What does this fold into?
Amino acid sequence: MRHTLIVLIAVCCFAAFSFSQTADELIAKNIQARGGMEKMKAIKNFRMTGRFEGGGGFTASVGQESARPNLIRQTFTLQGMTAIQAYDGATGWQIQPFGGKKDPELMGEDDMRDLLLAADFDGPLVDYKEKGSTVEYLGHDVVDGDDALRLKVTLKNGDIIYDYLDPDTFIEIRKEIQQFVRGSVRDRVEGFGSYKPVAGVMCPFSISSGSKNHPDAQTSTVQKMEVNVTIDNADFALPASLKTGAAADKK
It folds into this structure.
């Protein structure tokens, strides 16, 4: 009986300690674990190339160029064709040759949601208040059988990200993303692993994605990551053929 009481007290104390941590304290620990704000902000851009493995065993080459504050260009190459999605800080555009569309086209607001998340250079936790988001600490949870700390990030547009941190390292290990599109909820899960330092900042070199039932349906493995390289801003810019249409849409 005495042993049981001691264990119960210990559990209660641990729970009280866990919830005494605030979201801001956990975010600060996550930033420190990643390398610290100074090193993170010292990275002005990056270029990544990698390998994508999807359902059915097919593979493709993927690439990404990103620059502060929110410029991004992603490529997906398969069977000699390359799909492009890019954001110039104001407008999203894409080329989707796999659907027989070889000309650039503007992206709709809903289609851009994933791209805008990826364009957030430091991730949703950093400077979240300035971005119009809110963050709540929801306590402990379980990810793949292991303990994790759960944060709820509500973005300015109403979408929700449940961010899971390793309780020992405070490194991000999973995101569950809920997007509200045309009256319905679109869910997906991203997992992060194989962290390596790049210019003093810890970056995941393995990223899985899929539904909650199949979170590892797709995997991207980073093969090369370069930071503070020469990147032409024209790579992100709206193609000339789309500028007239974009200007008309803004009127």
Notes: The chain has a mean pLDDT of 89. The chain has one domain: 22-250. DSSP finds five helices and 13 strands in the chain.
